[in-house]
Amino acid sequence: MWYTYVLKSKRNGYLYKGSTNNLKRRKLEHDSGNVESTKSKRPWELIYYEACLSEEKAVKREKYFKTGFGRKFLKSRI
């Protein structure tokens, strides 16, 4: 399984969208500061995720979340 996920910074409310095949490990990487693009916005809260059958579908969904329509969709779900 692959996952598309959304994290929310507890520091400033910033939303980070990503994809991974191990959601628990990836969340720990974000929280421990091992991800360069998110370490300054720690700590993180996992607020949304979807399971996908393939990496290709998860990455496609992640890219959708980063569009205007995707952000609107997330606002309606969160």
Question: What tags apply to this protein structure?
Answer:
GIY-YIG endonuclease, 40% helix, 3 strands, alpha+beta
The level-1 CATH class: Alpha Beta
CATH topology: GIY-YIG endonuclease
Which strand order do you get reading across the main beta sheet? Answer: 2-1-3
Q: What general outline do the C-alpha atoms trace?
A: globular
Span from first to last CA?
23 Å
Question: What is this structure, in a nutshell?
Answer:
By secondary structure, the protein is α+β, with helices and mostly antiparallel strands.
Question: How would you portray this structure in words?
Answer:
- The chain has 78 residues and is of the alpha+beta class.
- The protein has one domain (2-77): GIY-YIG endonuclease.
- It has helices at residues 23-32, 55-65, 68-77; strands at residues 2-9, 15-20, 44-52.
- A three-stranded antiparallel sheet has the order 2-1-3.
- β1 and β2 (15-20) form a beta hairpin.
- The longest helix has 11 residues, at 55-65.
- It is globular, with a radius of gyration of 12 Å.
- The two termini are 23 Å apart.
Sequence-ordered SSE layout with sheet pairings:
Elements: E1 2-9, E2 15-20, H1 23-32, E3 44-52, H2 55-65, H3 68-77
